[in-house]
Amino acid sequence: MARLKRPQAPPPEISQASTADIAFLLLIFFISTTVFETEFGIPLLLPGLGGSVTKVKTENVLTFKTDATGAIVCEDAVVPLRQVRRMVETELQANDNLIVAIETSGEAAYERMIDVLDEVKAAKAPRISIKKSRR
Amino acid sequence: MRFKRTAEMGAAVPTGSMGDIVFLLLIFFMATTIFKLEEGLKITLPRAESGVRVPRERVTHVWVNGRGDITIDDAYMDLNTVEAILVQKMRENPQLMVGVNMDAALPYDFVDKVLRQLRKANALSVSFTNDVEGT
Question: What span, in angstroms and rounded, lies between the C-alpha atoms of B125 and B62?
């Protein structure tokens, strides 16, 4: 009798069932580690050098001086940082052409200038000028 | 004799292509993950509320840390070299905005010197990078 050939069993296959699992895991990894980089900054237009100096009326300028200790002075009165915004808003309502000048002492920390600039920007003043105190 | 019809199975959703979909999504995220290109310096940014998002394409960054080190594009430089580099960058892109990343504790004297370099280079559109307050 001829030897019956056994039908050959198909070679064992690697189970494909977990492919999707692996893919999901990798996907979740990348979703959780992707960082969309956002940078925030306060925009300002600096005055050019060597241009003509525009004359402005003194009453249209509101100056905030920050001294070396970080105290903010406006018209010879110390102003706490929280009040700066309200002051600027009130002055803006009274005078449309208001220019807010932020003068900072050379020894004051950069952060203090930014604090004042932040408050002035929050009050939506359209014209802002920054400078360093002479002394 | 009434034969009860075997209950009809609800149509099964073919899940064979789930792996394909997942791999496509994975490739999308792998392709869009941004790896930070510029290292910058280790600084503590000042905090502010009125910062706005800065468009990454038009911005070049000037980093100044608490010790007075200045870098642009991860290259250290002197204060006086800043103007030359910026003039070059402005020539390539006149619409350039300069993102100023300075340490919060820096004395304003130095800040003013850096800003003067920017004004000399006629790079007047400036953004004072800040950390968002309240986070």
Answer: 13
Q: Is the pTM of this model over 0.80?
A: no
Assigned domain for B36 exists: no
ipTM entry: 0.73
All residues at 6 or more sequence positions from B115 whose CB lies less than 8 Å from its CB, including other chains: A46, B100, B126
Do residues B45 and B129 lie in contact, with contact meaning Cβ atoms separated by under 8 Å?
yes
Q: State the fold for domain A58-132.
A: Nucleotidyltransferase; domain 5 (3.30.420)
Residue B97 sits at the chain A interface (C-beta within 8 Å): yes
The tens digit of pLDDT for each residue in B116-132 reads 999 999 999 999 999 88
Which residues of chain B are within 8 Å of residue A114 when distances are taken between CB atoms?
A: 46, 48, 104, 128, 130
Report which of B56, B61, B124 is spatially closest to residue A39, judged by C-alpha positions.
Answer: B56
